[in-house]
Specification:
The complex is a heterotrimer of chains A (491), B (472) and C (96). Chain A is of the alpha/beta class and 491 residues long. Chain A is built from 16 helices and 11 strands. Chain A has an 11-stranded mixed sheet, with helices on both faces. In chain A, helix 2 runs antiparallel to helix 3, helix 5 packs parallel to helix 6 (183-189) and helix 10 packs across helix 12 (357-370). The radius of gyration of chain A is 21 Å and the shape is globular. In chain B, the strands form 4 sheets. Chain B has a 9-stranded mixed sheet with strand order 3-7-8-11-1-12-13-14-15. The longest helix of chain B has 20 residues, at 222-241. Chain B is elongated and about 95 Å long. Chain B has 472 residues and is of the alpha+beta class. Chain B has helices at residues 53-65, 165-182, 222-241, 287-294, 301-312, 316-323, 326-338, 343-352, 354-359, 364-376, 381-394, 398-405, 413-426, 428-435, 442-452, 459-470; strands at 3-14, 51-52, 69-70, 73-74, 76-80, 90-94, 100-109, 112-125, 129-132, 141-145, 152-158, 194-204, 214-219, 250-254, 259-262, 275-276, 283-284. By secondary structure, chain C is an alpha+beta fold. Chain C has 3 helices and 3 strands; from the N terminus they run ααβαββ. A two-stranded antiparallel sheet of chain C has the order 2-3. In chain C, helix 1 (5-14) crosses helix 2 (21-38). Chain C starts with a helix and ends in a 5-residue tail after the last strand. The chains are: A alpha/beta (491), B alpha+beta (472), C alpha+beta (96). Chains A and C meet through helix 10, helix 11, helix 12 and helix 13 of A and helix 1, helix 2 and strand 3 of C.
């Protein structure tokens, strides 16, 4: 560890070092803030950097530790938050103009848990506006760039968090995933990202995009870091009616378990069709070989309704979003259009000026899908197909313990490459979306590089509340395919 | 042409919970603007609803008391529309799958009983309050106070079973009695905790199909509901009589002008885009919960009136007064249990002292003692009233006060003889008049004896002694 | 399926999004493309399929009827773009 710069330490190493008083939180936090200052002008992973607040938090952590108090497992360690989690009195924008000046009156459950674990929050991380996007280009605050190649996108919507983790501008971060928003950027940035089972982590205080699909989860530079961070943010919260009251297992302990005898399913639909690039396919096959070499068993399975997942998602998510985003009306908080002469004009102009194109597009689709005469044909139909997609997984998990697929069809694409055509952009999430519709957990773990030397991730999916299985399989892949982890940030 | 009226009523009742339906803010009236609010009920980004168990229990109990079928699975939906008093821009309300279906309430009309069907009961949250600054017409802005947002409401929708405004009024009063009896709503129409909208149409007698219905709003008392219905029926019949057509619309009752006024007809076509609220899971109610709640359903007003009449032999009129409040009826029964004499006397006392009983300032012992002493003639009616008033002002027991004040009636004839002798001796003229056949003058002697005894003599006994002494 | 400008503008009104005719035309094209794509769902026979609203199958949890005041009205009001007398102020309601 002596030769490795402080900011490159893993989350668990940094936490151990603070606990063993080998380093102070001030030093750790100072290193991260310096790193942000040096690199973020290029990467733009943060919307808001909390220089003073983080320094004060670090000082408080050091003081407490001197008195023998340790808040939690990440005492004094900087962990970033996607700017979708409410932070009391600290601007929370969700990447939107409409919330550009919003100061939440309360903390999200995830915020509380991260703070209770002792973490220092260095800032709020960039994201696609209201988490709608796969490239972080729809952020009102400008795009984030991929630290491995600044001409490329980091993925999205949690692109700021994935880029910050990859560029060592925090030790780990918490993102959210509605259709792949943690896993896809994790794959494109060469880090580990976990979408937990729906109901595993409280959604309280997390700005809603599509309530029946949204889940918060960790993004980290190692499987163990991700497992430890999930352990800290998971658990029952009585303020979220969809949060499930089940004990939180020791995820960290699952990381080093053997994969011998594990039944790995390859859903054939994920490997058919022309969208999957050859280098991504090759990388995922390497990951499969790792598992089989260690005694896992391969089973070919079928998820026959996979081809309908994207359509289903692009009806359900916008429908819920059209209702969730109706509250941004210029009455109680956020942006309000100037000079309107009446209420309806004020609301309509506020929303037209406050939302970006992608958000408006989805609000329009969702409103249309729910409107009189169309509900059954669109929203109602999508809910039924959602049942078929769930049933596919239920059947598959009778035969296998885990499914192995690519996370995204390609490595990171260039900025602006797909902004002109919404449907092409939506296809980036084709492998991640079914998991959200089924409510099951998924992880993306680095498994190689593309022809352009860009990171590629493999996705593992397990049955509900079987996150441990994901950590076991991902841990094996990570150990067998060592990865550089921290991006150089050049150019 | 003779017309028949068809009326259906939709009641919004505020449930008497302490906290709101989806958050822990107080559900009480009268707080400073926006004082009773939190991130959930003001629709802050990321805030989520959690259902109040008590609100569900109150609704289930109402469903059971009105013979509805409690649904084992019901669903909260979002009703989407923009308005500054609706912070989330949707109201959480049960839509396709409500918590209760298919019940009824029996009302008394023209000496008979009529059954009014209940279509459904569902739960929802209230909206806030919007106050227009200055006069409405010239108002440049409005102020939103969100205290009422998410206060729990129960909507009870009747079948179109009522045919007259009186039936409408009777149904509303019966329904309110039931809710107040159950303790699930305070029934206050003026404060808006019991609100009513009406759907009314007319059709030629004998016609099967319903006429075009008009929705009436803004009626804040039983009397106003009846008046608004009366007016609207006249208006519709008049309109048709003049060869006009009824337009399906919403009309507001203008209490000052005594007319219904059309709301803007060219309303933006409502499209509420209902869909199941993804922030809440289905409301699941199991049999054991329903049975547990069924055990808590008190006797309903109609049953109570009948039972009081049967069991105590008191007139229906008295029974109805007693049953108008659960507390009063319970008090009567407690008093009657303490004094085993004629329940009618006890009932009279309870009715007379109704306000004090409801204020909780009288005990059943006081009423039982008052009834017993009156019936035995130990005290006079005047003395009884005076004593109860003293109980109320001093808090001392009734009989202690009776003895202290010496208000016991003298019924012992030997004790009265001396006074009677004295009165007769001092009124020779009147004695002559009496003996001449003018029996009416007896009351003069009774008055004199009562005066001499300082009110303590039992007038009945005095009369008998006088008759005997005067002969005749 | 092509969505007309009028349909786009109607949906925009429902969603309270001010929109010019040109914008409606542009968006109409994109919405039509997306809706054409999702029409692939029509190929599936879902007559006997129960719709899924949630990935969770339990009933909704309850809270006890206990009051816990939030206690920071100022934090709720201080975000208001226009505020008067501890209320949120909005322009007058004009019917359109």
């Amino acid at each position: 560890m002596a030769n490795v710069p402080v900011y490159e330490w893993s989350l668990l190493e940094a936490a151990r070092a603070v606990r063993e008083k080998r380093i102070s939180s001030r030093e750790l936090t100072g290193a991260i803030l310096a790193r942000i200052e040096a690199l973020d002008p290029k990467v733009h992973a943060y919307i808001t950097v909390l220089r003073e607040a983080a320094s004060a938090q670090a000082a408080a952590c050091d003081e407490e530790q001197a008195k023998g108090t340790v808040r939690g497992p990440f005492h004094g360690v900087p962990i970033g938050l996607k700017d979708i989690f409410c932070t009391r009195g600290v601007r929370t924008t969700c990447g939107s103009r409409i919330l550009h000046d919003f100061l939440p009156p309360y903390d999200a459950c995830v915020t509380e848990k991260v703070l209770a674990a002792g973490a220092v929050v260095p800032g709020k991380q960039n994201m696609d506006e209201f988490a709608m996007g796969s490239s972080t280009e729809t952020s009102f605050f400008g795009p984030t760039r991929n630290p491995w190649d600044l001409s490329r996108i980091p993925g999205g919507s949690s692109g700021g968090t994935a880029a910050a983790v990859a560029a060592a501008m925090c030790f780990a971060g918490v993102g959210t995933d509605t259709g792949g928003s943690i896993r896809q950027p994790a794959s494109l940035c060469g880090v580990v990202g976990v979408k937990p089972t729906y109901g595993r982590v409280s959604r309280y205080g997390m700005v809603a995009f599509a309530s029946s699909l949204d889940q918060a989860g960790p993004i980290a530079r190692s499987v163990a870091d991700a497992a430890a961070l999930l352990g800290a943010i998971a658990g029952y919260d009585r303020r979220d009616s969809t949060c499930v009251d089940l004990p939180v297992p020791d995820y960290l302990a699952a990381v080093e378990r053997p994969v011998k005898g594990l039944r790995v399913g390859l859903p054939k639909e994920y490997y058919e069709g022309g969208g999957l690039s050859a280098d991504v396919r090759a990388a995922v096959e390497r990951a499969l070989k790792v598992l089989t070499d260690q005694g896992a068993e391969v089973v070919e399975v079928s998820l026959p309704h996979t081809e309908y997942a994207l359509s289903t998602y692009y009806l359900i998510a916008p429908a819920e979003a059209s209702s969730n985003l109706a509250r941004y009306d210029g009455v109680r908080y956020g942006y309000r259009a100037e000079g309107a002469t009446g209420l309806i004009e004020m609301m309509s102009r506020t929303r037209a000026e406050g939302f970006g194109d992608e958000v408006k597009r989805r609000v329009m689709i969702g409103t249309y899908a729910l409107s009189a005469g169309y509900y059954e044909a669109f929203y109602g139909k999508a809910q039924k197909v959602r049942t078929l997609i769930r049933d596919d997984f239920t059947k598959a998990f009778k035969a296998v313990d885990v499914l192995l697929t690519p996370t995204a069809p390609t490595a990171a694409f260039r900025l602006g490459e797909k902004t002109g055509d919404p449907l092409t952009m939506y296809l980036s999430d084709i492998y991640t979306i079914p998991c959200n519709l089924a409510g099951i957990p998924g992880i993306s773990v680095p498994c190689g590089v593309s022809a352009d030397r860009l990171p590629v991730g493999a996705q593992l999916l397990a049955d509900s509340f079987r996150e441990e299985t994901l950590f076991t399989a991902a841990g094996a892949i990570e150990r067998a395919l060592p990865w550089r982890r921290v991006a150089p940030v050049e150019g | 042409m003779a017309f028949e009226t068809v009326i259906g009523l939709e009641v919004h009742a505020q449930l008497s919970t302490k906290s709101k339906i989806f958050c822990a803010c107080p559900a009480t009236f009268g707080a400073a603007p926006n004082e009773n609010t939190c991130p959930v009920c003001t629709g802050m980004p990321g805030a989520l609803p959690v259902l109040n168990r008590k609100a569900v229990e109150f609704t289930i109990r109402t469903a059971l008391a009105t013979s509805c079928a409690v649904q084992r699975r019901s669903v909260f939906a979002r009703k989407n529309y923009f308005y500054p008093d609706l912070p989330k821009a949707y109201q959480i309300s049960q839509y396709e799958l409500p918590i209760a279906l298919g019940g009824h309430v029996d009302i008394e009309v023209d000496g008979g009983t009529k059954r009014i069907g209940i279509t459904r009961i569902h739960m929802e949250e209230d909206a806030g309050k919007l106050v227009h600054e200055g006069e409405f017409a010239g108002s440049q802005s409005s102020l939103a106070d969100l205290n009422r947002c998410s206060v729990p409401l129960m909507e009870i929708v009747s079948e179109p079973d009522m045919r007259t405004p009186e039936e409408g009024g009777a149904y509303l009063r019966r329904l309110r009695d039931i809710l107040v009896y159950l303790g699930v709503c305070d029934g206050n129409m003026e404060e808006g905790s019991f609100r009513c909208d009406a759907n009314v149409s007319v059709r030629p007698v004998g016609q099967e199909a319903f006429g075009t219905k008009v929705e009436l709003k803004n009626m804040n008392s039983f009397r106003n509901v009846e008046k608004a219905l009366e007016y609207e029926i006249r208006r519709q019949v008049g309109e048709i009589g003049d060869g006009g057509k009824i337009v399906q619309e919403t009309r507001l009752w203008d209490v000052n002008a005594g007319v219904t006024v059309s709301m803007r007809r060219k309303e933006e076509a409502h499209d509420y885009r209902y869909f199941p609220d993804p922030d809440l899971l289905p409301l699941v109610v199991d049999d054991s919960w329903v049975e547990e709640l069924r055990a808590t359903i008190p006797e309903m007003p109609a049953e109570k009136v009948a039972r009081l009449g049967r069991r105590y032999g008191i007139p229906r009129y008295d029974a109805e007064i007693l049953a108008s409040s659960r507390a009063l009826a319970d008090f009567f029964e407690a008093s009657a249990a303490l004094y085993g004499g004629n329940p009618k006397t006890t009932a009279n006392e309870c009715v007379h002292w109704k306000d004090a009983v409801l204020a909780g300032t009288l005990s059943p012992e006081t009423i039982a003692h008052a009834a017993e002493d009156r019936e035995r003639g130990t005290i006079s009616a005047t003395a009884s009233k005076k004593l109860v008033e003293l109980v109320l002002s001093t808090g001392k027991p009734f009989r202690t006060l009776r003895d202290e004040q010496g208000l016991t009636q003298v019924s012992d004839t030997s004790a009265l003889d001396a006074i009677v002798e004295k009165v007769i001796a001092s009124s020779p003229k009147e004695v002559e008049t009496y003996r001449a056949g003018k029996a009416g003058i007896l009351s003069f002697f009774v008055g004199q004896v009562m005066k001499e005894s300082r009110g303590k003599a039992n007038p009945k006994v005095v009369q008998e002694v006088l008759k005997k002494r005067l002969g005749g | 399926m092509a969505i007309t400008r009028e349909e786009v503008l109607h949906v925009a009104r429902l969603a309270r999004l001010a929109m010019s005719g040109d914008e409606a035309d542009r968006l109409g094209g994109q919405l039509s493309a997306i809706l054409d794509y999702v029409r692939q769902l029509d190929r599936l026979d879902t007559r006997d399929v129960v719709p899924t609203s949630h990935a969770i199958e339990t009933g909704t949890p309850f809270r006890d009827d206990a009051v816990e005041p939030f206690g920071d009205r100022e934090a709720l009001l201080s975000n208001a773009p226009d505020r008067r007398d501890d209320c949120f102020r909005v322009p007058r309601i004009i019917e359109d």
